[in-house]
Amino acid sequence: MPTVAASALFCLVALMQANGASAQSLSCGGTLSGVGDSKFSVVQKCGEPMSKEFVCVPRPQVAWVLSPYPGGPAQQVVTQQCVPMEDWVYHRGQGNFLGIVRFYNGAVESVRDGEKMR
Asked: What secondary structure does DSSP assign to the chain, as a single string?
């Protein structure tokens, strides 16, 4: 029978994989920038973004809290932790969606579409 810890860990891994599965690439002059690329690589392929913004992305963190009673079982607690990341916004031209590249620890964590430019 799976333990509560194993179930929570499975859910956490599944959530992280679901976030990574939606990753895209940013097309820049015939080359692609995507997950794992460095900031330097993205600037070389796509140039400087139209804006940069530091963001706090909440991510689940599992912790164990000891029982206040001697011999009592530890309790599992899931909290949200702020993970600092950076979003770069690229203008893809009139009629196209903005490209938003999110960096974590200096590498592309994800690429997504922003608002449509008119």
From this structure: ---HHHHHHHHHHHHHHHHHHT--EEEETTEEEETT-BHHHHHHHH-S-SEEEEEEEEEEEEEEE--SSTTPPPEEEEEEEEEEEEEEEE---TTSEEEEEEEETTEEEEEEEEEEP-
**Most distant CA pair in the chain: distance in Å?**
66
Whole-prediction pTM value?
Answer: 0.67
- Positive/negative CA dihedral, 36, 106, 10, 20: negative
Taking a C-beta distance cutoff of 8 angstroms, is the pair 86, 52 a contact?
yes
Neighbours of 59 (CB within 10 A): 15
pLDDT tens per residue, range 85-97: 999 999 988 888 9
Q: Which residues contact 94 (CB under 8 A, 6 or more apart)?
A: 117, 118
Tokens of 8: 């929570």
Q: How far apart are CA 78 and CA 12, in angstroms?
A: 10
Contact 58, 80 (CB under 8 A): yes
